[in-house]
């Protein structure tokens, strides 16, 4: 099966190297995506540009693809399900939730010079980064790719109710399935509240399991495919 891998903010497709290697060994075809503006040297990319790249990968898949979104890119994965509900077998959300229609994509941190740089580790202290040692933190920060303003502030547009028929699995790093269900039941994640086939899987890691638990994350993805 084709498994499209979309990393979150400040990351390019290389973030999935360990996951992709294990998926290949299990007979899958991983497709780690490097999105416009996050690895190609451009700072003028927009959310629409990134979605177009994801949809191209969906359309080029040999059969229905499983689309994996990490963190903020959970919204990109969900936008793909909205645009191609008949071409996606499952959406897997790793450590994040899709934004609702009309909301900004990821305007979480300060914009400087037309981009949103990595803000440092302060906002991620605690469960998110507990399994990253100092060397890993330095490497992450040094490699972090500033997110173009046109991506971070892009407005999410969802139009096709058939997206709720696409099965969704939430992989929970840094929080538990019980917490995720509580947030959804409280109305904090309105999109997932309407999904007809929604499951949850726990993983004992911080926010970036593709870095700290790549083999385990790949095993979970293989089992879900």
The description of the largest β-sheet is: 6 strands, parallel
Q: What gap, in angstroms, lies between the N and C termini? A: 7 Å
SS strand fraction: 15-25%
Total of domains: 1
**How many β strands by DSSP?**
8
Order of helices and strands: EHEHEHEEHEHEHHEHH
CATH topology: Rossmann fold
Low-confidence stretches: none
Helix content: 25-40%
Rg measurement, Å: 16 Å
Broad shape = globular
- How many helices? 9
Q: In CATH, what is the homologous superfamily?
A: Alpha/Beta hydrolase fold, catalytic domain
Which labels suit this protein?
225 residues; globular; Rossmann fold; six-stranded parallel beta sheet; alpha/beta; 34% helix; two-stranded antiparallel ribbon; 16% strand
Task: Give your account of this protein's structure.
The structure is a single chain. This protein has helices at 17-25, 47-60, 73-83, 134-143, 149-152, 177-185, 190-193, 209-212, 214-224; strands at residues 2-6, 29-33, 65-70, 88-94, 115-116, 147-148, 168-172, 198-202. The protein has 225 residues and is an alpha/beta fold. It has one domain (2-224): 3-Layer(aba) Sandwich (Rossmann fold), CATH 3.40.50. It has a 6-stranded parallel sheet with strand order 2-1-3-4-7-8, sandwiched between helices. A two-stranded antiparallel ribbon has the order 5-6. Helix 1 (17-25) packs across helix 9 and helix 2 crosses helix 3 (73-83). The longest helix is centred in the first third of the chain and has 14 residues, at 47-60. The termini are close together. The model has no long low-confidence stretch (mean pLDDT 95).
């Amino acid at each position: 099966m084709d498994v499209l891998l979309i990393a979150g903010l400040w990351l390019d497709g290389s973030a999935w190297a360990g996951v992709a290697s294990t998926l290949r060994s299990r007979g899958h075809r991983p497709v780690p995506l490097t999105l416009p503006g996050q690895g190609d040297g451009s700072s003028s990319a927009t959310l629409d540009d990134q979605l177009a790249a994801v949809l191209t990968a969906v359309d080029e898949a040999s059969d229905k693809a499983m689309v994996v979104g990490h963190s903020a890119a959970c919204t990109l994965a969900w936008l793909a399900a909205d645009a191609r509900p008949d071409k996606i077998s499952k959406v897997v959300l790793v450590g994040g939730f899709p934004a609702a229609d009309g909301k900004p994509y990821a305007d979480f941190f300060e914009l400087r010079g037309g981009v949103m740089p990595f803000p440092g580790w302060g906002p991620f202290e605690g469960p998110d980064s507990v399994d990253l040692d100092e060397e890993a933190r330095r490497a992450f920060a040094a490699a972090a790719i500033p997110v173009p303003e046109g991506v971070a502030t892009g407005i999410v547009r969802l139009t096709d109710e058939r997206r709720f028929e696409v099965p969704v699995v939430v992989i929970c790093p840094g929080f538990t399935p019980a917490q995720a269900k509580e947030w959804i039941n409280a109305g904090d994640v309105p999109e997932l509240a309407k999904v007809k086939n929604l499951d949850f899987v726990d993983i004992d890691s911080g926010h970036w399991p593709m870095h700290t638990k790549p083999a385990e994350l790949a095993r979970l993805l293989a089992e879900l495919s």
